[in-house]
Amino acid sequence: MDWDDLRVFLAVARTETLSGAGKRLGLDPATVGRRVARLEEGAGARLFLKSPQGYALTEEGAKLVPHAEAAEAALTGAEEALRGGGGTGLSGQIRLGAPDGCANYILPQVIRAICDENPALEVQIVALPRVFNLSRREADLAIGVSRPQAGRLTVQKLTDYRLHLVAHPDYLAHAPPLRGLADLKAHRVVGYIADMIFDKELDYLGPLGANTPPMASNSVSVQLNLLRAGAGVGVAHDFALPFAPELVKVLTGSLSLTRAFWLIRHEGDAHSARLSRFADRLAQGIRREVQRLESRTCAQADPQDA
């Protein structure tokens, strides 16, 4: 089989459309279609079924995927070796998917340091409030808030992080007393849009009976800015609070949450020395940055503890 045809096959399998594959490869959809047809003819098997939703793998196509990915990994490894990928420096492009809280408050400092050390490296941070599909190569690596239970993936725990209820002093000064969790019913709560919570680990307010907050967003950054504007009380990451020093923690004795970040990679990339070195440096940087930022939240005390 021709590698160029296998490359086109993988792009269609991951995007499920000819146009999506063409964008990734710099080819027009008609050319992609011809290459798929040529591969199917040479293999003597139907690899895709076309439907209104796009191109779905047949049973034969699904069998070909791991072999095509193995060829892709071998070629990538050869390219890394030829350009010095076995050395200490990193180069080329790496796309990293992450939830927007991590992407906004942790990754800028970590990625800047990695790129300072590796001037030939290009890192793209894709910040989206959802789970990334590495099988479709939406990213080379992804950071998740829970450990995936399915898929051909390798998973590494990065670090725990903490969250607390916070509010602006101006809001608290004019709001009803907040002495316990039961008092939240009398307060404006800021949180996630309930039907857009993409991971159960993000359902901070559901157990409190506040799963339909009057002010909500699918973005952690928007929630934090609502709280900074004095909109109400809500759960915030401790690592984000140094970027919002006007906010104070409340009810720390009643609610203190711990969650974890996980680094997720496609199983086929396990032998990529380049991605492994990047993953190691990323993990070290994230652990240090979370610890550094969380250590700076001590001054943002709970006014109820005063």
UniProtKB/TrEMBL annotation:
This protein's record includes keyword Transmembrane: no
Keyword Transcription regulation: yes
UniProt KW keywords: DNA-binding, Transcription, Transcription regulation
GO function terms (MF aspect): DNA-binding transcription factor activity; sequence-specific DNA binding
Source taxon at top rank: Bacteria
Domain HTH lysR-type as annotated: residue spans: 1-58
InterPro entries: LysR-type_TF_proteobact-type, LysR_HTH_N, LysR_subst-bd, WH-like_DNA-bd_sf, WH_DNA-bd_sf
An annotated GO BP: DNA-templated transcription
Family to which the UniProt record says this protein belongs: Belongs to the LysR transcriptional regulatory family.
Protein known as: LysR family transcriptional regulator
Organism per entry: Pseudotabrizicola alkalilacus
